[in-house]
Design goal:
alpha+beta; 5 helices; globular
Length: 174
């Protein structure tokens, strides 16, 4: 899956749809912001979790050697009964040591609660992408949730937790 990811600093604010701008540019926890917006109706729906191959752009961003696997976690974040964000996390197996082993047992608990409450967790880089109709990620997510033909915006963040990397993609749904 080839996606044109751009570092946040290279994207002009005006390129981001005004309805998403505050969400995408917020440096804090998306989980917390969704909880504030949707209250009790916020929930995490775990779609898949298991050992898998990173996508090419994930492998490059995480500086993983070819052939190495990671833990892949895919969820939908719901508010008011509808999916509002699709999230995919790639954690290299080499990162799943010590405290990070807990991430294998998150279930329907949000990853953001873990990442933003850890003192040894930092967001090392944020990238944005406009995902056009026809792109494999767009087709996958829209086939499962909403059938839209509009471009979807995604944010991807590299987190470093206890000196170990993990990558979180958040795709904002209409």
């Amino acid at each position: 899956m080839n996606t044109l990811w751009q570092p946040l600093r290279q994207v002009r604010r005006q390129q981001i749809p005004s309805s998403l701008r505050a969400w995408i540019l917020d440096p804090h926890s998306l989980t917390q912001r969704l909880r504030e917006r949707y209250g009790q109706s916020f929930r995490v729906d775990l779609q898949a979790q298991g050992i898998g191959h990173p996508l090419l752009d994930e492998r490059r961003r995480l500086d993983m050697r070819t052939g190495l696997n990671g833990l892949v976690r895919q969820v939908y974040l719901y508010g008011e009964g509808r999916p509002v964000v699709f999230a995919r996390t790639m954690i290299p197996l080499t990162s799943l040591r010590g405290e990070l082993r807990r991430l294998t047992r998150l279930g329907t608990r949000p990853l953001g609660e873990f990442l933003f409450t850890r003192l040894a967790s930092t967001r090392a880089g944020v990238e944005l992408a406009a995902i056009p109709p026809g792109h494999p990620l767009h087709r996958k997510v829209c086939a499962e949730t909403t059938h839209t033909r509009e471009t979807l915006w995604a944010r991807r963040s590299l987190f470093i937790v206890d000196a170990k990397p993990l990558l979180v993609l958040e795709l904002f749904l209409p």
